[in-house]
Amino acid sequence: MQDLLDEEDATVMTTDCYGTMWDGTILLPAYPCLGFARLNNKGFGGICESDLQSAVTHVLFQGLSGRPGFISDPTVDESNGTIILAHCLGTPKMDGPDGPAEPYKLRTIMERQEGVVTQVQMRVGERVTQARLVGIDNLLYFTGEIVDAPVSLEHDRGCRTKIAVRVDGDIHTLWRNWSSGLHRVTCYGDITKELSHFCRFMDIRTENEAV
To answer: Which domains are delineated in the chain?
Structure first.
């Protein structure tokens, strides 16, 4: 995959990993998850499930913060004002290629019980920003703080890497405003100032979904 990025003079790739592994004709020799994690660790990008919007958002986060994004799907817990963000592929070097790696385990993809993914123990107490660029002119986002990273729960419920984020704003408002599907990109740090400057320069509308 890194050779392919070199050939194309690219920095980020996304692969139809589910389609090619589930359609009965195996077109990939293996799931790309470990390769994606290594690309993310190196400051490039490997994005799940042929998701171009998440790939572009990942590029934006890398450029503004120097850190990779965590692609995830949401579950809201309205009882404590948190949103649980989960996906099987986690990136150990969430602080960027020059930072330390978070603890991780190698496990199977949860719903398939096959392949190999990195289950990452992200840092509780870390501020995060989640966003998704919709089309070319609208950025949905919110911020919060990681209050739990339940990697220690070894039961097969939900994807392998999980974080619970206490949202800045109102969790009910966030859920009512939620749109444009699942996959979102989350990075360490509150980078709303950088996002605001970039989007103003590029004439992109921003919308904080939690307010």
So the answer is: 2-208 (3.20.14.10)
